[in-house]
Amino acid sequence: MLFTSQSIFFAISALFSTLQAQPHGHIHHHGTSKRATGVVSGRGVVYADGNSGMAALGGKVSWSTDWTPWEDNPTNADLGNFAPQAWGLNNADGDPQKQFLTAFLNASSTFPEGATVLGFNEPEQVTQSWMTPQAAVDNWGGINDLKAQGHKICTPCPSNGNNNGTSGTGTVTLQYQSGIDQGTAWMSEFLAAAKGQYTFDCICGHWYGGQDNDLAADQSMIASQMGEMAALASEYGIEEIVIAEMQRVNGDQECEFVAWFQDTFLTDPQYAESGNKISAYSYNYDKFTLTSGDSLTTVGSAYIGEGSC
């Protein structure tokens, strides 16, 4: 989800591309959750199985997700409504722990009515779910069928990483190409290929700030990306934008960015064609900026609306 006109701002490194949004590589153990599953809105958190210290966020966010169809919350904190995700396609080698789509569809009978379902994770990234737009459409039928159960269906969730000309991100052809806005290109081709077959309740994407960006550069970057997302949403009659992962990679002024994002970008009329279209967003807890030990950081306090920078 990068934009050529703003390419100076898209300095996401390959390192962060490989660290974010990784699938779980182990057997899941799923207990009965005390939390509801339903439509997501407002601030949320995305976390990896095994994250600790999330109790500080208990009752402070309205939704959560963890890259799986199951709620693997290790601290059993109240993290609001859970959004299941179909992380990717089945692994061709038949590894039962990598049959992502089959596992998701098998688990879907346990989703309460009204869940917001997130599509494939960063499909334009070779280190993530890595598939062409047409392959995603060709394998979308089972996910689309969940509409009949009353679920809200989001598109796949491409990243805003452009790999900085270094290595290994996917493209719409599964061949490395430098200098293109890969997330946006992927989403545009996916929606075009899906037209006439499938409709979507929300358009999904990820946003990570540039490692070397200052605050103004990251503000400009996310406004540009969400403007492109909003344009695609309008073109295809999609009502909402969901940011399923976000974080400002450059920790300097991260609190100020969080405050601006929530207090200005989501509501100010100057962002009517970008930020105002976002119905739900989820900060990446796995980057360890919201809590320290069992306590909220300054960033975390600002994020949940109980503190200032």
From TrEMBL:
The keyword Lipid biosynthesis does not apply. It holds the Pfam family Glyco_hydro_cc. InterPro entries: ASL1 (IPR053183), Asl1_glyco_hydro_catalytic (IPR024655), GH (IPR017853). Keywords: Signal. GO terms for cellular component: fungal-type cell wall. One of its GO terms (biological process) is fungal-type cell wall polysaccharide metabolic process. Residues 46-303 form the Asl1-like glycosyl hydrolase catalytic domain. Residues 1-21 form the signal peptide. This is Asl1-like glycosyl hydrolase catalytic domain-containing protein.
